[in-house]
Structure formats: structure tokens, C-alpha cells
């Protein structure tokens, strides 16, 4: 039976750390679904449509990477898609406690689903979507930390918000 994995998250925005984990997952599993959580944050910087568009564009040459959205319980979505695995990235020990809690809760909710933790390449271990947004909004360089398309969109958003503020 082909192994289908779900990589869930907010992806606001997609970072090169996410891209690294998705690429590793695409090599390890027959198919990986990047599942973007609807309404994770009340005011996301990137709309759901943008996040889907960006992720699809970045993985357009990877036929076994699918991009989808979900709401409600993750385990229900995974079951509905008939997937067997949840993929989560572990960057540092600080991620571990929350990830461990989530994995055990998901295991309790549905023991048939297995969480697999994957580590990104070392150069991505300090990147998070939250830090990218903060650094960029304060004028810092994020080149090389996010896909080019995300950097362009960040620039457009900044230009739009500064022209509104004027
Ligand atoms: O990118 P994030 O914010 O780290 O992703 C968190 C996510 C989407 C994996 C988590 O919040 C989630 O699974 N939400 C769906 C609701 C759910 O199932 N909650 C119980 C998790 S134990």
C-alpha cells in the first residue's frame, strides 16, 4: 500500500525550512500532502489563497507533493484523506515539548496514525514564519530564508502598507 503523509501547518508564510521538510518527505513517502490550517490566526499576513498558490508554485515540479487546506481536527483530516503519517519538523529542543504533546494527543485520538519527526538542514534550524515576518517588517534581510516568491510578496505587502500609511 502506498504511504501517504500529511504535513500540516499554518505556513504564514512558507519558509525554506518548510520547503526542506516537504522535499525530504517527498523522497521518503509515496505522496505528501501539505495541509494548510484554515483560520489558524485571526489576521494572517498571507491569505489562504496566497499560501496555497505559493506552495503549489514552489512544488510545481514535484508530482507527489499536493497542497490542500483543512479545518477541524488534524487526525480527522488525515483519516479522511486515508493517510497514515503526520510529518512535523523539529528544529531544536525547544520545539520538542509542544510537538511531543501534540503527537501523543493525536496518537490518543487516532492510534492508527503515526507522527514522524524530521529535521531540516542545519542552516534552517533557527527559521520560523513568525521571525521572518518580524525581521522583514523591521527592514531586515530574509533573502535565502524563504522562497523567492515569498520574498517578492513580502516586499509588495510592505510597499502597499507604507503607501496606505502615507
Ligand atoms: O504551523 P503550526 O502553527 O505549527 O501548525 C500547528 C498545527 C496546524 C499542526 C496544529 O495547530 C493543528 O494540528 N491544528 C488542527 C487542530 C487540531 O487537531 N488540534 C489538536 C492537535 S493535538
Describe the structure concisely for a colleague.
By secondary structure, this protein is of the alpha/beta class.
- What is the total tally of β strands? 5
Give the structural class: alpha/beta
> What distance separates the N and C termini?
58 Å
Q: Which parts are unreliable, with pLDDT below 50 for 5 consecutive residues or more?
A: none
Name the helix and strand elements from N-terminus to C-terminus, one letter apiece.
Answer: EHEHEHEHEHH
Rg (C-alpha, Å): 16 Å
Shape annotation = globular
Strand order of the largest sheet: 3-2-1-4-5
**Averaging pLDDT over every residue, what do you get?**
95
Layout of strands and helices, then pairs:
Elements: E1 4-9, H1 16-28, E2 31-37, H2 48-58, E3 65-70, H3 74-80, E4 85-89, H4 93-109, E5 114-118, H5 129-137, H6 148-165
Parallel strand pairs: 1-2, 1-4, 2-3, 4-5
4'-phosphopantetheine is lined by residues 8-10, 37, 40, 73-74, 102, 105-106.
Overview of this protein structure:
With 166 residues, the chain is an alpha/beta fold. The chain is 45% helix and 17% strand. The protein contains 6 helices and 5 strands; from the N terminus they run βαβαβαβαβαα. The longest helix is centred in the C-terminal third of the chain and has 18 residues, at 148-165. It is globular. It starts with a strand and ends with a helix. The mean pLDDT is 95. Bound molecules: 4'-phosphopantetheine. Residues 8-10, 37, 40, 73-74, 102, 105-106 line the site of 4'-phosphopantetheine. 4'-phosphopantetheine (PNS) binds next to strand 1 and helix 4.
